[in-house]
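Reopening: structure tokens for the calcium ion complex, inputs below.
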Amino acid sequence: MRITALAGGIGGARFLRGLRAAVSPSDEITVIGNTGDDIHLYGLKVCPDLDTVMYTLGDGIHEEQGWGRRDETWSIKEEMKAYGVGPEWFGLGDRDFATHLVRTQMIDAGYPLSAVTEALCIRWKPGVRLLPMSDDRVETHVRITDADGPRVVHFQEYWVRLHAAVDAEAIIPVGADAARPAPGVLEAIGGADLVLLPPSNPVVSIGSILAVPGIREAVAGASAPVVGLSPIVGGAPVRGMADKVLAAIGVETSAAAVAEHYGSRASGGLLDGWLVDTSDAAAVAAVEAAGIACRAVPLLMTDLDATAEMARAALELAAEVAK
Ligand code: GDP
Ligand code: CA
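Re-run output (same inputs, fresh job):
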């Protein structure tokens, strides 16, 4: 079985760990990672979502934090601060720095991001094939209005420095319209037996991936069933500030509204099936009325077993809708 999943950072990575535990070792998992969160700092290319997937599946993640390396130290950051060089609000630890140095060195030598990611994964052995959504530079920006007036900030500045405390007025994946899917991305979607949308942020993770021309069309036209899992439980994101970016695109923060935003494949959208949390069982009827098969199952990734159970529920729903 060939499974292709689109993924952001923490939500995507944790789900993928459960998926890997739920399938047999002979099944092939391809992950199309979001690179809209990428940022250039100190001359280095940083890919937070790709790294979260790589570190999580490669057993190097800081488990409680959900991003960055376990047993991290912060000497470089302290030295930069001593020079008065920021940004102070973005956490790059010493171990993590090495990843960005290797990546940037390879990119400067002419390798595309997809080849660099493959090389980094030789060390981390994530047990999946990890592809960036594109080799081309895409960086999500957010339009806000604050004391400095109306302006556009990098997504990381909005999320990490401003903690999404001001309203997002628009989400702009800068560069996406001219970006091409990375090698293997369209093939992985077209050739899959199952396409999954993990409980990643629908706007700035999955939405950024879908903004690369050709990817949305490939998912909508895939011969395999497409099943998603809601990142919204009980009307709120389980973690993070997805409500802020959903509001920016006019989508209510509810499991049903996110499903309807993705849309039914029967009417040109992306989903055949959608899982909501048991606490959102009342949403099932509305999702089904929108032409998407829907089940309510526990969707909290409290531990590996619970997450593997979510993956199994997605596989079961896929088998049902494939009939
Ligand atoms: P990010 O790039 O690190 O923000 O990670 P993702 O975009 O992959 O995932 C973020 C989303 O994961 C958030 O919208 C959360 O609501 C969702 N999420 C986190 N933990 C859980 C969980 O245990 N269950 C579900 N259903 N969603 C979760
Ligand atoms: Ca992210």
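The two ends are 16 Å apart (CA to CA). The pocket of calcium ion (ligand 2) is lined by residues 8-9, 34, 37, 48-49, 205 (CB under 6 Å). Marking as resolved unless the reporter disagrees.
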